[in-house]
Write a structure and sequence with these properties.
The protein has 171 residues and is mainly α. Helices cover 67% and strands 0% of the residues. The chain contains eight helices and no strands.
């Protein structure tokens, strides 16, 4: 619970520093409010959390707070050790599929249930979805936290720099 609290604090703090930097760069509130949705969309699309990106675009994931926040949350919550029931649920939906007078999917589902291997089956499917960056190790979590802290520091320093220039640009 403490790890998650630290993670959410770092995500929020990094995001706040990004917003502060955007506000410091913007000369008007209208411009800042216009830019912010684009930044949010960039975070969402290029974080790699919604869908996988191709090679060239995947480099951009490293520049999103959302990606590192998701890595931290998944590592802390043990994503790689959780079963996935998506395939199992699809097999349940396809039990009524008939092929040449037989129900092959129902036969497979019944066999897995009869032998008590539903959990094993779901864990085997989940093993194909494991992500190295979601490893539940203290080193990995600390590494991801350092990325989030780096974002906060960089955005804070940039905010200070731009705020120090306000007197010169006659806002």
């Amino acid at each position: 619970l403490v790890d998650l609290a630290i993670t959410f604090f770092l995500i929020s703090f990094s995001s706040d520093m990004l917003a502060l930097m955007i506000s410091a760069v913007s000369k008007t509130t209208t411009f800042a409010m216009t830019v912010m949705p684009f930044v949010l969309v960039f975070q969402l699309v290029f974080s790699g959390g919604v869908f996988a990106l191709q090679r060239g675009a995947s480099i951009l994931t490293n520049f999103t707070i959302a990606k590192w926040g998701m890595c931290a949350i998944c590592a802390i919550c043990g994503y790689n050790s959780l079963p996935t029931f998506t395939v199992w649920n699809q097999l349940q939906n396809l039990k009524g599929y008939e092929y040449e007078g037989m129900y092959p999917v129902q036969m497979v589902v019944d066999n897995i249930e009869r032998t008590g291997n539903v959990e094993k089956f779901c864990m085997e499917i989940a093993s194909n979805n494991q992500v190295a960056q979601y490893a539940s190790t203290p080193t990995n979590v600390l590494n991801v936290w350092s990325y989030l802290l780096d974002f906060a520091i960089v955005f804070s320093l940039l905010s200070l720099f731009f705020l120090s220039k306000i007197d010169k640009d006659k806002r």
